[in-house]
Amino acid sequence: MLRIDNVNTHYGPIQALHDVSVEVKQGEIVTLIGANGAGKTTLMMTICGDPQATSGTITFDGEQISGIPTNKIMQKGLAIVPEGRRVFGGMTVEENLSMGGYFRDKAEAAETIEHVLELFPRLRERYSQRAGTMSGGEQQMLAIGRAMMSKPRMILLDEPSLGLAPIIIQQIFDIIQKLRDEGVTIFLVEQNANQALRIADRGYVLEHGHVVLEGSGADLLVNEDVQKAYLGG
Amino acid sequence: MMRKRFYNAIFASGIGFILTCMMVGISLNTEGTTLKVEGASAAQWTWIGIGISLVFLSQLFAGQVDAFLGAVPKPQLSKLLPEEGKRAMLKPWLLAALLVVMLVWPFMVSRGSVDLATLTLIYIMLGLGLNIVVGLAGLLDLGFVAFYAVGAYTYALLSQYFGMSFWACLPLSAGLAALFGFLLGFPVLRLRGDYLAIVTLGFGEIIRILLNNWTSVTGGPSGISGIAKPSLFGLEFTRRAKEEGATTFHEFFGIDYSSSYKVIFLYLIAVILVCFVIYVINRLMRMPIGRAWEALREDEIACRSLGLNRTMIKLSAFTIGASTAGFAGAFFSARQGFISPESFIFIESAIILAIVVLGGMGSQVGVILAAIVMTILPELAREFSEYRMLLFGLLMVVMMRWRPEGLVPMKRPHLELKT
């Protein structure tokens, strides 16, 4: 579904990604793990077209999306939950969600809101509360809900467990699996390698902008190098 | 702690002393051809002394003063208003009553107050326009007066060279100002915050300097005079019809000529224009684009992640804000009958910005209230006109301490999205 082929990305003269190739198939959860500064977020941003890849191609659903502007990419059935949640703090939960469904007609958006609220009962309780006054976990739920509002076929999640308590992280990962069961393809970037690999069908390990390892989630979980580097084994 | 405060107090009163000595303590007088420097009189020195010791004491006991001010209860506006449900019911009636009062009121008061009200309405229009740019979209624009000038000169020039009527020029002025907003917006809107402010400031000055120097077309510093006043379906408000065969307002209705008809007529036009602007902006705020402006102010990256085109959103805010200013500009030149670049200096931008900040960013009611305060207060305090800017500054400081969110903080219109 998403195919990243030999992508190189530069920030000015600094090269952040070196010939990265990743593939995510329909209905999969694929995770990308790596240390700080490995280029995980850069890869996410490159998929979204900011920064644009300097070489290589990215295709989504058979259509090339590298080289077109961000706002066009984000309207093709792809949604991202950005790193650090980035909810609209001054707006209510309802308004945040309706921003997510900006390009859909009202009735359809209302349907999806209902669906999101079923998935996250906490958001229903906080429906007319300002997003900025909610806890980190609730904000993360809102960020995921907002991304779901455009009815994407694929969701990119950038470190959804960042700064959350273990019990909340568990809830978030449960939700991610639920989303997959609904037929949404998931590409998950995580530092929390242990949990990410547990739910992932396949995983990639990124180091200094290179993909150094790939395999099924279970294989990577027991891989010695991965254990040494990311799982504290 | 006490020592630190003591130093602070010495420092503050020292600065205060130097500044007052320069501004009040010394005065320059021309006597014949020579310039004479004169010191202040004994009474003035006493006042300066009192002022300085006040600064000293207030700094020394800053903690106690703050505690005292904190204890003073803040006015709770929300408690004065009836509750939500009742308010929704009363609202249409109140609006209707307000409109009736606004229409009847000019016939009962003096010409001067109607004129002042018209000026206030112009500032309300300008405030509402800038409110979109600064209050909703969060783009700091320090050159808003440029679009006002474009609107004013569009009408003045079209009327002078082509004899076009006010009503035909009104949409043209708004359109041209919008075009300028659009053209300026394109290169500028990738800038943020301070940089955007500087560029818009520069743009405001460029327009003013251009109007000042393009003497062959705009008349330069001497401006354009004799701009035609608006007419009511072809009826003029002059004593005698300008053209042969045209009828004037008083002849048509068979009443005596009075110059106050014209003033009242201009006021009524302003009321209609303001109502129109309020209506349009209100609709826009309820539309998705209004929500997008606010979302963009809150978080640009999140907006982009949702597939919104930030350039288009910013550009639309800028263009619509500019067209409102163009509207106000055209009306301003019609009311004034004379415009020159002097009317479009930076201080005008600053006043409009102050109206938006004072009123509460994004709040329409707040902006309207602030526009009224900002135009009427200087008129009431005529005898202090020399100290106008000083009072202006004082008002700003007090407001930022007392009510930083503005007179009437914004409440977003609620959009229901329930199944």
UniProtKB/TrEMBL annotation, chain A:
Keywords: Amino-acid transport, ATP-binding, Nucleotide-binding, Transport. Residues 2-233 form the ABC transporter domain. CDD domains: ABC_TM1139_LivF_branched. GO terms for biological process: amino acid transmembrane transport; L-amino acid transport; neutral amino acid transport; organic cation transport. This is High-affinity branched-chain amino acid transport ATP-binding protein. It holds the Pfam family ABC_tran. Belongs to the ABC transporter superfamily. It comes from Pontibacterium sinense. It comes from the Bacteria. One of its GO terms (molecular function) is ATP hydrolysis activity.
